[in-house]
Amino acid sequence: MFDLVISTISQGLLWAIMALGVFLTFRVLDIADLSVEGTFPLGAAVAATLIANDHSILLAMVMATVAGCFGGIVTAFLTTKLKIPALLSGILTMIGLYSVNLMVMGKANVPLLRNETIFTLTESTFGVSQSIATLIVGLVACVVVGLVMYWFFGTVLGTAIRATGCNPQMARAQGVNTDLMVVLGLLISNGLVAFSGALVAQSNGFADVGMGTGTIVIGLASVIIGEVLFGTRSFKNWLISVILGSIVYRIVIAFVLEMGMPPNDLKLFTAILVAVALSLPLIKSKFAFMKQRRY
Predict the structure, then answer these.
(1) Within the chain, how many helices (H) and strands (E) appear?
(2) Distance from C-alpha of 184 to C-alpha of 138, rounded to nearest angstrom
(3) CATH class for the domain made up of 2-270
(4) Please, what's the b/e burial string for 64-90 (b: 16 or more CB within 10 A of its CB; e: otherwise)?
C-alpha cells in the first residue's frame, strides 16, 4: 500500500509539469491549446531516441524541451501570423507532430529498459528504490519549475504575458506586442509539456507515438481540481494548486482502479471528472441563489 501511494504521488509530480504548461495557456493566456497532445510525445520521442543511442541524459532532456518549444512556436505562428484560430492551430500542430514523432523515433515505440535514465541514475546514486527515485526526481523538477515560473511571471516580460491573456486590448494600448507575448507563452508552455513527456517516458521505460492521447484532458483535470480544492488567491498559490491538483487526480485514478474500474474506462471517467469540476462554480452559485431565496 505504501509503495502504491508513493508511486501515485510520484506520477502526479511528473505529470504536474505538463499541467503547469496547460495552465499557462488555458488560464494565463486564455488560449485552448491542443498542440500539447503532440508536444508531449514529441518530448518523449526525442529524449528516448537520444538516450537509446547512448547520448547523455542531460542532452536528451534539453533537446526534448527545445523540440517542444519549436512545436509551440509553430502553433503561435499559425495563430499570430496566419490568423488561424488558436484551437485550430493547435489541432494542426498536433496532427503534424504525429508524423514528426514517428520520424524522430523511426518506429512506433522506443524501449528504454536497458538504458540508463535519470531515474536509474538517481537509484544508483542515492541507493533508493525505483518509487523513491521517481519521487525525488519529480519533487525536484516541480520545485525548480515552480520557482522559475513564479520568478519569471513576476518580471516585466512575464507580467506582459499575463496582461496579454487578461486583456489584450489594454495590453496593446500600453505598448505591449501581444503577438510576441503569445509566441513566448506558447513556447514556454509546450517546452514544459515536452519536458514532462521526457520524464514520463524515462519513468515508464519507453516512448510511444500514442502516449499523448488525452494529455489535454489530464492537464485540464489537474488545473480545475487544483483550483477547486486549493484556491487561486495569488499566482504562487495558483501554481501550487495546479501541482497538488495533478497529485489529487492521480490519487483519484489509482483509487478507482483499485475499486475495480476497467482501465479502458479511464478516459471516460476523466472526461466526466473534468466536466463536473468545470461546472462546480455554476453549481455553487445555483445553491447560493436558492439559499438566498429560501431566507
Answers:
(1) 12, 2
(2) 25
(3) mainly alpha
(4) bbebbbbbbbbbbbbbbeeebebeebb
Measured on CA atoms in the order 122, 126, 132, 138, is the torsion positive or negative?
negative
Contacts from 278-283 at CB under 8 Å and sequence distance 24+? 278/224, 280/228
Instruction: Determine how many CB atoms are found less than 10 A away from the CB of residue 95.
Output: 13
CA 65 and chain centroid, separation: 12
* Averaged pLDDT of the chain: 92
Q: What is the pLDDT of residue 294?
A: 67
d(CA 201, CA 157): 32
- Write the pLDDT tens digit of every residue in 198-247: 999 999 999 999 998 889 989 988 998 898 889 888 999 999 999 999 99
208: which strand partners? 109
What residues does each domain of the chain span? 2-270
Which helix H or strand E contains 109, and what residues bound it?
Answer: strand 109-111
What CA dihedral angle connects 214, 219, 221 and 222, to 10 degrees?
Answer: 140
Place of cell 519536458: 195
CA-CA distances (angstroms) from residue 130 to 59, 67, 68, 135, 140?
A: 22, 28, 27, 9, 15
Q: What SS3 state is found at 295?
A: coil
Cα separation, 278 vs 275, in Å, equals: 5
Q: Is the pLDDT of residue 143 over 70?
A: yes
Q: For residue 2, what is its C-alpha cell?
A: 505504501
First to last CA, the chain: 48
Q: Which three cell numbers stand for residue 277?
A: 469540476
Please tell me the distance from the alpha carbon of residue 26 to that of residue 65, in angstroms, as a whole number.
Answer: 20
